[in-house]
Amino acid sequence: MKYSYVKPRKKTPFTPEFQLIIIFFGISISMLMTTYIFLLYKNYTFEKDKMRIVNERLALQKDIELLNTKIAYIQKQKALAEKIYTNNTVLRDSIANLFDLVPERITLSKAQLLKNGLILYGITPNKDVYNFMLQAPLRSIFQKTYTSFYPAKNGWLHFVSKNYMEDDTTDDEELTNED
Amino acid sequence: MWSKKVVLSKIFEALYVKVLVNIIIQKTKTLIYIEVYGRKGVVEHIHNEFDTPTPSQQMIDFITSYTKETPYFYISYLDPSNTQGVVPTCNKNKLAYYKDISSCEYLCFNNSWTFYTSKSELYELEKEQGLLGVDFVFSPFVVLANFFQDKISSHISLYVLILEDSIVLSVFEDSMLLYGEHLVVKITDDEDTFSHVDDEDITEIEDALDENIDLEDIDVDDNIESLEDFGDIEDLDSLEDIEDFSDNRDIEEELQEGDMDLKEGDKEHFNQDYSRFTLIEESVAHYYKDDRYESKFLENIYIADSVGVSYDLKKLLEEEMFFNVYIRRIDIGVEVSEIAKKELGL
């Protein structure tokens, strides 16, 4: 039952002061939350970046190891190439020397260079020419020299000279130079 | 969204205390009774009085010191309007039979009777109290009915609420209002207060008071001149009824009243009480005379005294009007607060 002639004014706990406090705390909390979320996000991205960098580092380490392996391999290749180049140079010089050794009267038809030896096929007017002009320098280079002759149609002699140095190394590498 | 706000408001309402500020505006001063109402009932109550009928800065500061604690504060006023009253019906078609209340704000009490007040004076009050605000305006008739709710349900009696500058008078029988009137007391401190009273009457009254007249010795017929206005009494058919008066005395009320000390009547209080007595007498005469009201005979008068009436008033009512007079002290601020609590459902 109503007793009062007038209705009471509307009562609300949301007074201007209360609203101000709520707004103040609301803004403060939202700022803190925003900062917290921002830091969470940054932490997440940092962790993600860290993981990525660690993975990259691992990958790079693997790459480095691979590269080191490759470098080592290349260095070996280089060393080998240098060795081959040197050998080739030596061989070239040897061949040049060899051809310098061969006198004009003797004609080589085939030369077979072995690792520790040299096999020469050719034709000589006679054994003396061969013995004095070719065998002598060959003997100065090789420790073992075996020569066999067989006559050619024109009266000259075909010869096969097998010359070996006393080296135990066995290598199947074989270079063939044919005229 | 709205329901969430309501739920939130209910939660906040439960958390806050309620402050009931009850203001009784009198001619020269304002009485304030503040009740702080918590979850476990009244936590604190304060009385104060300010010597101004309009809100002063001091008064506003005093009230604000309590109301600032909570948004749930309610400012209640006891209706100070001079144009207020009651009519013994709630039927809108019958209201005009008793009073033209087209310019009044009115409410029905228990589907039994209507209390009203002037709209313009209500607006005036809201305007005057703008600084404090107005949440409730209660009729003193409601306060009176609430204060004597243990009595109004019984046999017919006259109930009077004595305020500083007004008297609220009602006749109830079995909780039904038969008659009610709001009377303004015009009290002056001048010696001429009695100017409207004949010298002969004063002498008669003083003699009566001095002699401590025994009621049983009074011959009713001798005072019939002063009771001429009571000619329309329906139930007073014979003097046999008068013999039954003693049977209708409220012994319980008398016992309660026994502890109360009434002031001995000095001249100033006598002036005031005589004015009050005159108004009550006139109003009762009006009740008996006016055909619109069911003029049943009154034997008992229950007075709710908020000002501290003197023994003279009781004596005048007993000896001049042959009432059984029962006086209860009333703290009007507390009673207004009770109505406010009822209104708020506390």
Summarize the structure.
The complex is a heterodimer of chains A (179) and B (346). With 179 residues, chain A is an alpha+beta fold. Chain A has two helices and five strands.
Rounded mean pLDDT of chain B is: 80
The end-to-end span of chain A amounts to 136 Å
Largest sheet of chain B: 5 strands, mixed
Structural class of chain B: alpha/beta
- SSE sequence of chain B, one letter per element: HEEEHEEHEEHEHEEEHHHHEHEH
Shape of chain A: rod-shaped
Per DSSP E runs of 2 or more residues, the count of β-strands of chain B stands at: 13
By DSSP (H or I, 4+ residues per run), the number of helices of chain B equals 11
Molecular structure report:
The complex is a heterodimer of chains A (179) and B (346). A 5-stranded antiparallel beta sheet of chain A has the order 3-4-2-1-5, with helices on one face. The radius of gyration of chain A is 48 Å and the shape is rod-shaped. Chain A contains 2 helices and 5 strands. Chain A is α+β, with helices and mostly antiparallel strands and 179 residues long. Chain A has 2 domains: 15-101; 105-178, no CATH class. The longest helix of chain A has 86 residues, at 16-101. Mean pLDDT of chain A is 85; it is low at 169-179. Chain B has 346 residues and is of the alpha/beta class. Among the domains of chain B are: 2-78, Nucleotidyltransferase, domain 5; 191-332, no CATH class. Chain B contains 11 helices and 13 strands. Chain B has helices spanning 2-15, 57-67, 92-98, 119-128, 140-147, 199-211, 239-243, 251-257, 267-289, 311-321, 332-344, and strands at 18-25, 30-38, 41-50, 73-78, 84-87, 104-109, 113-118, 136-138, 157-162, 166-173, 176-184, 300-305, 324-329. In chain B, the strands form 3 sheets. In chain B, strands 3-2-1-4-8 form a 5-stranded mixed beta sheet, sandwiched between helices. A 5-stranded mixed beta sheet of chain B has the order 11-10-9-12-13, sandwiched between helices. Chain B has a 3-stranded antiparallel beta sheet with strand order 5-7-6. The longest helix of chain B is centred in the last third of the chain and has 23 residues, at 267-289. The radius of gyration of chain B is 22 Å and the shape is globular. Chain B starts with a helix and ends with a helix. The model of chain B is unreliable at 190-199, 212-227 and 229-246 (pLDDT under 50). The chains are: A alpha+beta (179), B alpha/beta (346). The interface between A and B is medium-sized, with 13 and 30 residues.
